[in-house]
């Protein structure tokens, strides 16, 4: 049965689903939450929880990356952010937190992010994380990757993330500007690469064929993104994850058994959204605003991404977030309010236990229902 609908005589559209339109269905079996495992492995690295901290200055500093690593997850540091442009960004983050006017905030952010990236700061920040004994991960956008790769690798990064609103295996650039050859780049690199975002079956399949260890799924779906309003582009996450999970299965057969991890990135505002992302096929999730709500987050009650200070067309904004709890409580609880903003892992374990699954791979097979909003 076709899932296309006619929106007019000359155009059809595919029916897709958001997390709000689907739900997880309990099965005949249940189990104790203590018998559930939330661990996952990518390449040679095993993590106790399927959570990556988004490489955003309001979410991840070296200190919060270390704390998330100690909690069993993976903190990904933004290597184009304030921490690699300024020796001491703490006063600058404090200054930004006191600017309430949106236009003034954008102007000030553009000034602060205009300071050149310093390779020695990339080295020092990643070294600080490594010295704490946790897995080291850093992120660059595609157009900065070639410039700073050597610095990042020499700093001892364990996992390298290439993250943008959308990343393709084929990019057409104007004359005189050499695009990143993603397949060659990954082949020559000595560390596993996670790349994205992707939002369709075909784009994800192309990224998997480059040799990426993981693919980020999402396009402009985060709390600070205005991509839908500025560009008219939208990729509802439930359908995007299901499509990319299908690409993973097909690539597993095509490659003779090579498994590429699918990581949900965007639109995960509550623990329920995170649970549904795994049910749709995600191996792990990359959390932004959810961790930006931590009382000890670098954003100090504000959340923003790279797009918020773009020099000519911002496709995101700095949004106010109400701190709900320290980072450790957002991850492991206890929760003090029933709105899905704290104790993400407790919620995941209980959902898995209620539906009878003991591990994440099993939970990806859980039944789903569609309910009109």
From TrEMBL:
It holds the Pfam family IMPDH. InterPro entries: Aldolase_TIM, IMP_DH, IMP_DH-rel2, IMP_DH_GMPRt. This is GuaB3 family IMP dehydrogenase-related protein. It comes from Leucobacter coleopterorum. Belongs to the IMPDH/GMPR family. Keywords: NAD, Oxidoreductase. Residues 17-300 form the IMP dehydrogenase/GMP reductase domain.
């Amino acid at each position: 049965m076709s899932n296309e609908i006619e929106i007019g005589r000359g155009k059809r559209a595919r029916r897709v689903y958001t997390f709000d339109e689907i739900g997880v269905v309990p099965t005949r079996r249940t189990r104790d939450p203590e018998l559930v495992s939330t661990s996952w492995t990518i390449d040679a690295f095993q993590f106790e929880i399927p959570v990556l901290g988004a490489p955003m200055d309001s979410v991840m500093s070296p200190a919060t990356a270390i704390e998330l690593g100690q909690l069993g997850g993976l903190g990904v540091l933004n290597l184009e952010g304030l921490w690699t442009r300024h020796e001491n960004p703490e006063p600058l983050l404090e200054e930004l937190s006191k600017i309430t006017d949106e236009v003034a905030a954008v102007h000030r952010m553009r000034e602060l992010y205009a300071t050149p990236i310093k390779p020695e700061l990339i080295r020092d920040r990643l070294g600080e994380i490594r010295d704490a004994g946790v897995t080291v991960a850093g992120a660059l956008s595609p157009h900065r990757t070639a410039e700073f790769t050597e610095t990042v690798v020499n700093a001892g990064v364990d996992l390298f993330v290439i993250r943008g609103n959308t990343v393709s295996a084929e990019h057409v650039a104007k004359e005189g500007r050499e695009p990143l050859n993603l397949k060659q780049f990954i082949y020559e690199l000595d560390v596993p690469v996670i790349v994205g975002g992707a939002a369709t079956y075909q784009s994800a399949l192309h990224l998997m064929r480059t040799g990426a260890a993981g693919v980020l799924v999402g396009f402009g779906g985060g709390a600070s993104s205005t991509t839908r309003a500025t560009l008219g582009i939208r990729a509802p996450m439930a359908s995007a994850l299901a499509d990319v999970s299908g690409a993973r299965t097909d690539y597993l057969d095509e490659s003779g058994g090579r498994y590429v991890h699918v990581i949900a990135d965007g639109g995960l505002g509550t623990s329920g959204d995170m649970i549904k992302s795994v049910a749709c096929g995600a191996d792990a999730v990359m959390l932004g605003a959810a961790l930006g709500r931590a009382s000890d987050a670098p954003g100090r009650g504000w959340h923003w991404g790279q797009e918020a200070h773009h020099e000519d067309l911002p496709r995101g904004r700095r949004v106010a977030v109400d701190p709900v709890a320290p980072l450790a409580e957002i991850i492991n609880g206890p929760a003090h309010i029933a709105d899905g903003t704290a104790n993400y892992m407790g919620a995941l374990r209980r959902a898995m236990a209620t539906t009878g699954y003991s591990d994440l791979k099993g939970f990806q097979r859980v039944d789903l229902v569609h309910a009109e909003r």
